[in-house]
Amino acid sequence: MRVAGAGMAGLCAAARARELGLEPTVLEKGDRPGGSMLLSSGVVWRYRSLEEFRRQCPNGDPRLQRMIVERLDGALEWLESLGAPLVRAETENPRTTGRRFDPRGLTEALIRAAGEVQTEHALVPDPGTRPEEPLVLATGGFPVRLARELGLAIRSNAWSEGNGLAFGLSRGADTTAGMDEFYGRAMPAAPAKWGEDEFVDHAQLYGQLARVFDESGEEIAVDADDWSENGLVQEIARRGGKAWYVVDPDDLQHETPYGTIAHAIDRARSAGGSVEKRDDGSVAVHVVAAVTHTIGGLVIDEKTRVLARGGTPIEGLYAAGVDAGGWSTGGYASGLAAALVFGLAAAEEIAS
Question: How many domains does the chain have?
Fold first, then answer.
């Protein structure tokens, strides 16, 4: 068994395969394991019911959504059994349930369980030959490529350019809807400079309490039900990728997930971002839509087998994490949860 990618999905697949008596080979394109998991907040969550999942991601595949709802809790227990350090046992969001892990400790626990990772090994598209052993595609989707195509910022590891997608397509795989959709955040726009260490706390996550304007000055309506603000980020992307968040001074002390709005704005200013105080006392912050992970991807079934056009499984080919698309189309759901559930499912299917 080979695993392409050493992020959450690939490491979970390899660790579970090793438990089941297999000897997985893990190939990582980057210069370190951990993928974008290492750069995340470490929250692994699901919606509390399938019905809520369907409401939040109405165009997603209900079979895959059901997998996540039904299997995530046990998978979280499995992560803890590996020694992944727990930060918080709940999400503090009434819509969701899950756990928050220390990203570095989670990565280290998975590496210990998965075994050796061969870094700087990129997956090369296969024009048609069958793999000698089962292959799990877990390369992190194509956020870098999508950000480049749309002129957006990148909020992921620097090497997830779509190697898994390209390999699947070379074998005749089908793709899901939502190939232009992504999960992302509004981040301080250039000339601001921020990197991997600032991916989490420099997010400008207060669009619900701001007036939002695109670069032409047209106001962008903010949906009150867009709790994650991913819908807002997608709309900013559709309008060229940049916008202004204008905040009333009375709202500056409202809390965000990472301190008050004032704290978030201070971080944007400290990074060199454009922050303006208006004559009416409001504060305007220039933001850019930044891609964290893609939502579209390869079509898989409940066994994580990659499907060809027509719905037949491609022999020996599996996909996990965001290389697999379709589970959150039309909305937003936890990429780490999909990586965990699909990674385990792929290993268990290969070992069966």
Answer: 2
In a shared domain, residues 206 and 84 = no
Rounded to whole angstroms, how far apart are CA atoms 284 and 265? 9
H helix or E strand, kind and range, residue 131 = none
Nearest-angstrom CA–CA distance, 53 and 341: 15
Report, in angstroms and rounded to the nearest whole number, the Rg of the chain calculated over CA atoms.
20
Q: What is the pLDDT of residues 69-105, one digit of tens each?
A: 999 999 999 999 999 999 999 998 999 999 999 999 9
3-state percent breakdown (helix, strand, coil) of the chain, nearest 5 = 35, 25, 45
d(CA 300, CA 326): 9
HSE on the CB side for 252, CA within 13 Å?
Answer: 13
Euclidean distance between CA atoms 348 and 22, whole angstroms: 10
Sequence-distant (≥ 6) Cβ neighbours of residue 250 within 8 angstroms? none
Instruction: Output phi, psi for 167, to 5 deg.
Output: -65, -45
Element (H, E) at 57: none
Nearest to 324 by CA among 351, 296, 343: 296
Full domain range(s) for residue 237: 183-291
Considering the domain architecture, whether residues 22 and 157 belong to the same structural domain is answered as yes
pLDDT at 125: 75
Helix (H, G, I), strand (E, B) or coil at 212: strand
pLDDT at site 79: 97
Q: What is d(CA 9, CA 341) in angstroms, rounded to the nearest whole number?
A: 8
Q: Are residues 165 and 246 in the same domain?
A: no
Per the rule left: phi > 0, alpha: psi between -120 and 50, beta: everything else, 224 is: alpha
